Amino acid sequence: CQHCRVCCPGFWGTRLTEVNSTREQYFKTTLRELIIYVVFLIDLCLLTFGMMNTNTYYYTKVMMDLFVESPVSPIDGTNFNSISSMDDFWKVVQGPVLDGLYWEKWYNGDQLPVNLSFIQYENVMLGVPRVRQLKVRNGSCTIYPLFRNIIPGCYDGYSCGEEDKETFGRGTGTAWKYWSEEELSGSSHWGLLAQYSGAGYYRDLSRRKNESAPMLQELKDYLWLDHGTRAVFIDFTTYNGNINLFCVVRLVVEFPLTGGALPSYQFRTVKLIRYVSAFDYFIMACEVIFCCFILYYVVEECLELRLHGMKYFKSVWNCLDIIVIVLSMVAIIFNICRTIAVSNLLGALLNDPNIYADFEYLAFWQTQFNNMLAINVFFAWIKIFKYVSFNKTLTQLSSTLARCAKDVLGFAVMFFIIFFAYAQTGYLVFGSQVEDFSSFVNCIFTQFRIILGDFDFHAIENANRILGPIYFTTYIFFVFFVLLNMFLAIINDTYTDVKAELADTKDDFEIGDFFKQGYKNMLNKLKMKKDDIADMQRALDSAGKHLEYDIWRKNLIRLGHSDEEIAAAFSKFDKDSDNVLDEDEQKQLRAELEGQKDKLNEDIEALKTMDNSGKPGDASRVTKDDFNRFASRVAKMESSMDSLMSKVESLLTKLEM
Predict the structure, then answer these.
(1) Binding-site annotation: residue ranges
(2) Which of 215, 219, 306, 534 is deepest in the core (most CB within 10 A)?
(3) Which stretches of the chain drop beneath a pLDDT of 50?
(4) Given CA atoms 498, 504, 509, 513 in this order, what sign does their dihedral have?
(5) Is the pTM value of this prediction over 0.70?
(6) Is the dihedral of CA 586, 588, 594, 596 positive or negative?
(7) How far is CA 148 from each of CA 139, 144, 165, rounded to the nearest angstrom?
């Protein structure tokens, strides 16, 4: 790192490494950092949004409408979303779900290719679907003694320790024998009621409808679902080659202890094969550039950490740099591993298309990868504030939040005491009748929704006609009208103080002044070049028909020109190298000098035109804000002097006494 810093101080130089830089160099470093980071941010946005596709939503919606919203029949409107019993489950699975999985004919009755199921005529099903269930054993809970003669068995809610692992039913086949998560290479699932393992009893269906239908009928006839069943999963994966997207589908029906059924579903539409079209290869180029940027920032952070040690972590922006780099490196590693895993899985599937294709694990981690990139992009955009913090207007937000943090945290304690008191009250009073208050967590989110005006008042009024209106009215008054406005008042007062203080301070850098100073420097350089040309013209005017080099050098040395400059100008037109300029050579030199002089005059006029006032001295003029700021400081000094003088007079009076 030290070698890099010595060899390339400008390339990896930052505001933290250039500790001895001038004010102008500091600003140039900040501007260079900002430009490099903007390019990095553009590249990051291109590769993240390039992985998304507007067709993702429509693909998900088509599959969801087909498997979730399709009714059993025009007369019976039961669909997957409305399953409420085991009977409904079998009607839906043997009806719209089975019909949706197997599209074997065109709409005119023509047969589709054998052994291929193109769902909606466009989406090929990879492998075969799998139906799996998880059960709990009898006796997993305790029945009150007085009811033991009436209730023959007790089945607790699902947990890994209470799983039923015994063979049941017909006793033969995968559907009636327990298989562990390792044997199935399964993954856990977070359902509505519990978190379920990837183990259980499963049945892989066929690639043909006429073979799968008897399999499901057999499960139904032999009571595959019973008192111990707690969850049933239907898993399958489809691929659309037109848009290069996989849709990994999991239909879940949970059977709670109370009876009935709770349906839920997951449609993970993901892009697992990354590089197919020309645009995909453009994204690959963006990924390579992204890796180069990460390498650059890793070296940069190492230099800063080496220079500042543990003090480096005292800055929030430095910690944010580390977060962005770590998330980016994890994303790069995951991208490589995912590409290898998809290739291996597709290879095994192509060798045997009649096996179950378990893309659930890959789809889950691809979704987490997308979530991680979303968080990374969020932090990357927030990081822009690091490079624009030299402007006081752009630091008002961060200064306000930093200053009012203690007051807000102190107020938050009082706010959440009242907030959680209302949440507990709502859970106890309305939890058994209103879905929004069915759990303590739901109560918390419901109360946030009340603050935003999204709430069903009639639901709690119907649940309790007395306590419902009292709960709602007092909550709105104390939380919304009092506490929330106190919270806003704390921030508003702090913002007013910060704005007043910033009004009396000057920006670390005035961008306008910086460019005006550059304008002045450029103008001065042009005028110096013009003066040099005038000196050479005067030296030519004082010469006769023949101008010797010694005379030319003597005259220009007296005017402050260097030997190198004098020799270069003379030798350029001394064609015969005799150290004497004749009339023709002097004429060429005069023409050259006149041309340079005219060009300089044009550049000077162009620079003056670019300036709003046309006066070079405007860069150093006193603005109205500067004058007001200076007047405010003078007034404060006068007030301090008056107070000091009164104290001195009081002290002198005491001494005289």
Answers:
(1) 574, 576, 578, 585
(2) 219
(3) 1-8, 612-620
(4) positive
(5) yes
(6) negative
(7) 11, 7, 24
